[in-house]
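SEVERITY: medium
COMPONENT: batch folding queue
REPORTER: lab tech (J.R.)

DESCRIPTION
The queue accepted two submissions in a row. Attaching both inputs and their returned C-alpha cells so the on-call engineer can compare them side by side.

ATTACHMENT 1
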Amino acid sequence: MKNLFVLLICMLFFVGPTSAQAPIEINLWPEGLPNSNGIDKTKPFDDATQNFRPSIKVFLPEASKATGRAVVCCPGGGYSHLATDHEGYAWAPFFNERGIALIVLKYRMPHAVTEVPISDAREALRIVRANAQKWNIDPKKVGIMGSSAGGHLATTISTHSDAETAPNFQILFYPVVTFDYKYTHKGSRHNLIGENASADMVDLYSNEKQVNATTPPAILLLSDDDKTVPSMNSVNYYAALKANGIKASMHIYPSGGHGWGIRDNFKYHNEMLNDLSAWLETIK
C-alpha cells in the first residue's frame, strides 16, 4: 500500500495537470470558397500535394489561466507549402502556458492568385473574434504571428486592413516583408503575385511601404546570417514602424540561419523564448 501511494505521488509530480483543452478544428469556408487558386475547387483537398483545406486548429489554455489574448499563427513555406509543425502546432504549449490561445491557420497556396491566402487569414481573424466570448478571448487582444512567407501574410494583414479588422499585435519570425528583388525571397514573391507582376503590385505588397499610424505593434525575431530571407526585410519594416510611431521590438541573433521556429536545436532558442515572453507581457 505504501509503495502504491509513493507511485501515485510520483505520477502526479512528473505528469502534472494538463495545461490546455483539446484542440478544435474549424473549416474556414463551410458554405464554399470565396475565391479559387485554380486547384482548390477542382481537386480533392490533400495536405500531401499542398492543396490545403483552409481551416484553423484552435488551442485554448485552461479557462482559469486565460488572459484574453490570442494569436492567429501563419506558418511559413514560401507560399508553396506549410511548415505547420515547428512554425505552428508545436508553439501551442508555449502560448497556452501563458494563458494565450493559439490558432494555427492552414491557408491555401495562392498559385499567383494574391487574394486567396489573404482572404483565408482575414476569415481566421473574423472567426476568432466571433467566438471570443465562448473561447475566453478579448476581441481587442487578437494578434497575428507569421514565419518567413507566413510573416509576409501576417504583415499584409497588419498593413492592408483598417483599424477595426486588423490584428492587435504582430509576432514575426524571419519574415518576408518586401517584394523588392534586392532583398525579397523570390519564391514567395512569384507564388503570391506572379513572375510578371506590375510595379504597382510589387509596391503594394512590399509591406514596409504600407505601414501607417494604425499598424499594430510588432516584435521581430531573426538571425543575422539568414541567407534565405535577408535581415533587411525586418530592418526596413522596423524602421517603417518607428517612423510611424508604432511600438516595435527587434531581436537579431548572431547565427541560426532561417526556419528554426520553436526547434530547440536553434542555438539561441532559450534567449528567443525569453525575449518573446518578455514582449508578450507588454500586450495587456
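ATTACHMENT 2
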Amino acid sequence: MAGEYENELRDRIEKICPADKKSMADAAAHWKTVGKPLYSLGKLEDAVIRMAGIRGTADYRIGKKGLVIMCADNGVVAEGVTQTGQEVTAIVAENFTRRATSVCLMAEIAGADLFPVDIGMASDVPAVTKTEYKVMSGTKDMLYEPAMTREQAARAVLTGIHMVEKLAGEEYDLLATGEMGIGNTTTSSAVAAVLLEKDATEVTGRGAGLSAEGLDRKVDVIRRSIGLHHPDREDVLDVLSKVGGLDIAGLAGVFLGGALYHIPVIIDGFISSVAALCAAKLCPAAADYMMPSHKSGEPAGGMVLDALELSPFIDCNMSLGEGSGAVAVIPLLEMGLAVYREMSTFDEIHVEQYEDFNEEMKQE
C-alpha cells in the first residue's frame, strides 16, 4: 500500500501535461520572419521554441532566474568510493551562502539567485538547513541496506516539487539545477546502471578524481549493491530508495515541478541528468520541460541525455557540478530570446523574406 507522500506525488504527477504545441508552432513561425538567415542560430532557436511550449505562449520573457542546489550526503562514502569525507558537503553548502564557490560567481554573471537546499546532509548548516525540506541526515550505506525507505524517496521528490511551487509563486521564469553531495557520482552511476540496463563498468567514472584502484572499488560497490537489492527499473521510487540519493530524488522533483508549473528547468551535469531521467520515467511528459546545458565527462553522461532524447547546448568539458554548467548556458538562452523578441522582421526592414527549403532538403 502506497504511503502518504507517494500518494501525494502520484496526484501531482497526474496534473502534468505535455508542452503546448501551438505556442511552439507560433514561435517557429515568428523565427521565420526575423530578419536573418533561416535557422542560423541553431539550437538557440530550438530553445526559444521549446520555452514557448513550456510557458504556453510565443510571447514571453525571462525575468527572474534561480538555481536550486540539492545538498545531501550518501552513506556509501564509507566504502572508500571518494577522495574526501562527508564533512565537505556541509562546508560547500555553507559556502553557497557566502559567495565562496565557483557557481556563486558564475550565477552572479548569469543573474541567477541561489537556493541551496539541505534535503539530506549528515550535518545541519544553520544558514541552509530547514526542517521542512530535510528528509533525513544522509542515506544509509547501500552496500548493506537500502539507501532510504520508499516513503523517504517519495518525500524527497515532493520536496523538489514544493521548491518549484514556492519559486513559481515568486514569479521565477527559469530554473537551473545543481547539487552538492560527496559520493553522488556513485549513487548516480548506480541509478543510471539500473535505468539504462548497463553494467556498472559502462556507466561509472572517476568522479572527482579517483585513482584506478578507487575506480575499481567504486564499480564493485555499485555492482554488489545492485545485486543485493535488485531494484526494479520499471519503478523509479524503488530504484531511488535502494541505490539512489536524496539529492537525485530532490532534483527529480524539481524537474517534475517545472512541468507542473510551466517553468523551463535546465539540466546540469551527470547527477542532474540522472535526476531528469528519473523524472521522465515517473512522468514522460515532464521531459518537454527540460533544457540540457552540457554533456558531462562521466561515462554515462551522453548515454543519459540520449535516453532523454536531448542534445546539450554547450560542450566545455565541464565536470564541476553545483549547477555550473546550467548557469553557464543561461546567457546563451537569453541571447537567443533577445534576437527572437527584438530583431526587426523582414517586413520592417523591407527585405524579401528567405524561402524555406528545409523540408525539400530533408526529402533529398
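NOTES FROM REPORTER
The first helix runs from residue 4 to 14.
No errors were logged for either attachment.
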